[in-house]
Amino acid sequence: MKRQILLSVVGALAICGTAMQAAGGPLKVYLLVGQSNMQGHAQVRTFDHIGMDPKTAPILKAIRNADGTPKVCENVWISSVDTAAPEGERHGRLTAGYGAWGRGPKIGPELTFGIYMKQHVDEPILIIKTAGGGKSLNTDFLSTQCRSLRVQCPTVGEPQETGKDIAQARAGRPKMTGQYYRLMMEHIKKVLGNIKRVYPA
Hints:
This protein is an alpha/beta fold. It folds into two domains: 2-137 and 180-198, no CATH class; 144-177, no CATH class. Helix content is 46%, strand content 15%. Strand 3 (76-82) and strand 4 (89-93) form a beta hairpin. Helix 1 (2-23) packs parallel to helix 9. The longest helix has 22 residues, at 2-23. It is globular, with a radius of gyration of 19 Å. Residues 1-15 have low confidence and may be disordered.
């Protein structure tokens, strides 16, 4: 399982390399994919608390301007898809607001990742982020290589433990399996297929 997931990630990175060459410019592309923690549920209004600890105070200076507004990264761009967000893709220069959808602007790991990564590379950065809360790596994010095996041999114990009908659970398994893996790959290919739409440099 781990090996097949690793191969899927390597395959995605290979796609990135091809697209960067086609774009004709030095661009660092990073993929951020995950569940609720990757969505990011930290409210912007909680930023003040970062400055209360001397150990984390430098982070506050890195993400917020002197006037209290979130910093906008000049040479770091992002395309983000939150599966819970009705507007679908959000893209632009990296700043606060690319966290989980709803109830005010939020941040996820993308903000500090982009800010601190830019301190270590000279090239412009493009972050492609896909996140969906409450999903399963064993089903929703299962790669294409693993899907056929998972559909043929569903875990029988799962529907029993949740009180669901086993036959019904198995019938719905093919549709559920790999759904968010496919969404992730579609998002990556869409962005890399027309990078200038997201990174107009």
